[in-house]
């Protein structure tokens, strides 16, 4: 019984020491023994919904043309499309597909992306609702 308890305590001490110092984030094992695993490079999607003022639909679609054209030319952009709800013409959805998170970061850093929000602020009812989705389980069919 004492042997089992001693083994259990030793195991817990060993396991907890592998998780390192929580204050500094350092691991107590020396760096030569650690295996660095890169973050997965998953494809990413953005779905952004926006409601446009009824009298501003044409101005909104004109403003959107520039960001759509330029975004589709980005190296990491696979697709950047705008869809309009056929039953409620004031509702739009941007559906964007990117190679990885780095491609999204580059898109968000672009001058035309930064300018788009202020450009449409008077055309929309409220700011866009944005969802960023990791495609970890992407299946091509």
**Rg (C-alpha, Å):** 24 Å
The amount of beta strand, in percent, is 15-25%
Main pleated sheet: 4 strands, antiparallel
Cα distance, first to last residue?
57 Å
Shape: elongated
CATH fold title of the largest domain: Alpha-Beta Plaits
Number of helices: 4
CATH architecture of the largest domain: 2-Layer Sandwich
The CATH C-level name of the largest domain is Alpha Beta
Low-confidence stretches: 3-30
Alpha-beta classification: alpha+beta
Helix content: 25-40%
N-to-C SSE string, H for helix and E for strand: HEHEEHHE
Number of domains: 2
Average pLDDT, rounded to a whole number, is: 81
Structural description of this entry:
The protein has 141 residues and is an alpha+beta fold. The chain has two domains: 32 residues; 91 residues, 2-Layer Sandwich (Alpha-Beta Plaits). The protein is 37% helix and 21% strand. It is built from four helices and four strands; from the N terminus they run αβαββααβ. It is elongated and about 65 Å long.
In short:
With 141 residues, the protein is an alpha+beta fold. The protein contains four helices and four strands, in the order H-E-H-E-E-H-H-E. It has two domains: 2-33; 44-134, Alpha-Beta Plaits (2-Layer Sandwich), CATH 3.30.70.
Question: Layout of helices and strands, plus pairs?
Answer:
Blueprint: H1 2-18, E1 44-51, H2 57-72, E2 77-84, E3 91-98, H3 101-109, H4 111-120, E4 129-134
Antiparallel strand pairs: 1-3, 1-4, 2-3
Helix pairs in contact: 2-4
List the defining traits of the structure above.
single chain; 141 residues; alpha+beta; Alpha-Beta Plaits; 2 domains; four-stranded antiparallel beta sheet; disordered N terminus
């Amino acid at each position: 019984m004492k042997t089992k308890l001693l083994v259990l305590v030793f195991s817990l001490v060993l396991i907890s020491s592998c998780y390192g110092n929580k204050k500094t984030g350092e691991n107590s094992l020396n760096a030569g023994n650690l295996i660095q695993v890169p973050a997965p490079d998953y494809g990413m999607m953005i779905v952004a919904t926006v409601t446009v003022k009824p009298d501003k639909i044409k101005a909104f679609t004109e403003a959107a043309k520039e960001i759509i054209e330029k975004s589709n030319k980005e190296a990491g952009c696979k697709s950047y499309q705008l869809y309009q709800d056929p039953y409620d013409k004031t509702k739009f959805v941007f559906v964007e597909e990117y190679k990885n998170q780095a491609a999204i970061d580059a898109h968000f850093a672009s001058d035309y992306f930064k300018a788009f929000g202020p450009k449409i602020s008077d055309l929309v009812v409220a700011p866009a609702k944005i969802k960023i989705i990791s495609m970890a389980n992407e299946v091509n069919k």
